[in-house]
Amino acid sequence: MFCLMALSTSEANAQAVGGEPYRFTSKQGWCLDGQYSSWVVRNVCSAGGLETTWSKYVVGQGYFKLVSKYTGKCAEVASHLPGERVRQSPCVWGAPTGLDKQRWRALYVRTANGIPYYIIENESGHCLAHVTVTWWGGGLNDPFTTQQLCTASDNQLWDSYNMQYQYHGS
């Protein structure tokens, strides 16, 4: 038994173009972590573990899908509102209807200490971010990755490191 799936030309070639292992590290030193099958969280960077390894599948027009090597699921947002947590869902390939919640692009911002940093922007125009929740006694680090209005602040800057070819950059 087999299944046929109609894909757009660019997305039909996505797996041939992408799939190399990447680690996304925020300028604050946290890695995108995909070990929890429902969410994308921040965590300490392990020494090459699958939980912090992602594949970038190019889908055209400068966009890609982020696929967790640990779960095989895509990073997406439930809505296009700022503050929305980034979750993991089965990847949807093919031409989207409306904005695609699984399409991301890396836009260069600046280089620091020889490493180029990017904002990772969803097709909605919002950026991947780590936030600090403020409580009465001070700050509490929220482990969830969210999308926020793009400001290019340190909690939105990402090092896109290709683990196979060992280079920084998108």
Task: Write up what this structure looks like.
There is one protein chain. The chain has 170 residues and is mainly β. Strand 2 and strand 3 (41-43) form a beta hairpin. The relative contact order is 0.21. It is 5% helix and 46% strand. The termini are far apart. Residues 1-17 have low confidence and may be disordered. The chain has helices at 9-12, 14-17, and strands at residues 21-26, 31-33, 41-43, 54-60, 63-68, 74-77, 86-89, 104-112, 115-122, 126-135, 138-149, 158-162, 167-168. The radius of gyration is 16 Å and the shape is globular. The strands form five sheets. Strands 5-4-1-12-13 form a five-stranded antiparallel sheet. A two-stranded antiparallel ribbon has the order 2-3. It has two helices and 13 strands, in the order ααβββββββββββββ. It has a single domain, classed as Trefoil (Acidic Fibroblast Growth Factor, subunit A).
Structure in a nutshell:
The chain has helices at 9-12, 14-17; strands at 21-26, 31-33, 41-43, 54-60, 63-68, 74-77, 86-89, 104-112, 115-122, 126-135, 138-149, 158-162, 167-168. It is mainly beta.
